[in-house]
Amino acid sequence: MLRLTKWERFWQLDVPGGMIPLVWNGMMSCGGAWFFLAASESIAVLNHTCALPGIGSYAAAASEGRTRRTEGPVRPQH
Question: Taking the domains of the chain in order of start, what are their residue ranges?
Fold first, then answer.
């Protein structure tokens, strides 16, 4: 095929043709992982909120209008 060796075919046809799907899948995977990471840091079970320190709890506190201290988890307001 096109008088290319297997190595040349790989680098000249397969790699360029596969880059778009690889980059697309990487973007989708990182987006999903980032969403899961942020969501997993703020867990609510039976009206009790457990928030771990991290970007997810910071985002949850900011969306609720609370301030975030630098030490310890975010405490729920009653």
Answer: 41-71
